[in-house]
Amino acid sequence: MGHATLYVPLALGLARAYIEAAEIERTFMDHTAIHIRRATLDDRETITDFNAAMAVESESKLLDRDTLSAGVDAALGDPGKCLYFVGEMDGRIVGQTMVTFEWSDWRNGVFWWIQSVYVAPSFRRRGVFKALHQHIRELARGDPAVCGLRLYVHKDNHRAIGTYESLGMELSPYLVCEEDWSAQGR
User: Fold this and answer.
1) Is 20 helix (H, G, I), strand (E, B) or coil?
2) Which residues does residue 37 pair with via DSSP β-bridges, in sequence order?
3) Angle at 121 (CA atoms; ends 137, 62), nearest 5 degrees
4) Do the Cβ atoms of 86 and 120 come closer than 8 Å?
């Protein structure tokens, strides 16, 4: 499998990070190979479908398909915004996650935020997210500019919390506050 060095400009050009975007295969639980790779524009429909399903499952939200599709296209077209990774089994995308970047002046480093985690229902509990997480973790650990991983999870999503904790993540003392202007047309 090949690899390429990806140059990722971070927010406002304040920092730069290089990551090795290697494709990998991992074998988990049922000995089925899970192929992890960076998503491409060719994956936009699946990622859009997965994000729509995730919004319904996690927050009972129906997303506007045009806005969601435009957001996925923008993300896939600009690695400075984020990186999507997909997990495949038998040539089919069965899981995804997205990484965004946050500069920490306290640590003089970059946190990678894991977001948009979704695994197709029939492939859950088969190691797909574990493979995605391990791939992202290895890329992050290999970059001296990265100081850690973060993600947010709904407080009542106990299954996901258990999964994240089993992978070595800990609940932090921070809560997320937001002002969401998207419904107001910005």
Assistant:
1) strand
2) 86
3) 95
4) no
Taken in order 183, 83, 47, 117, the sign of the CA dihedral is: negative
Amino acid code (one letter) for 159: R
Distance CA 111, CA 67 (A): 27
DSSP strand pairing (32-38 vs 83-89): antiparallel
Residues 110 and 146: beta-carbon distance below 8 Å: yes
Q: Quote the CA–CA distance of 132 and 35 in Å, as a whole number.
A: 9
H or E stretch covering 160: helix 158-166
pLDDT band (50, 70, 90) for residue 24: low
Whole-number pLDDT of residue 19: 42
Confidence band for 176, pLDDT divided at 50, 70 and 90: confident
Fold of 5-184: Aminopeptidase (3.40.630)
Instruction: Say if CB 149 and CB 136 are below 8 A apart.
Output: yes
Q: How many residues comprise the chain?
A: 186
Q: For the chain, what are the domain ranges?
A: 5-184
Please tell me whether the overall predicted TM-score, pTM, comes out greater than 0.85 for this model: no
Nearest 5°: CA angle at 110, between 177 and 58? 40
Which residues, in sequence order, are bridge partners of residue 85?
38, 97
In angstroms, rounded to a whole number, what is the distance separating the alpha carbons of residues 118 and 56?
12
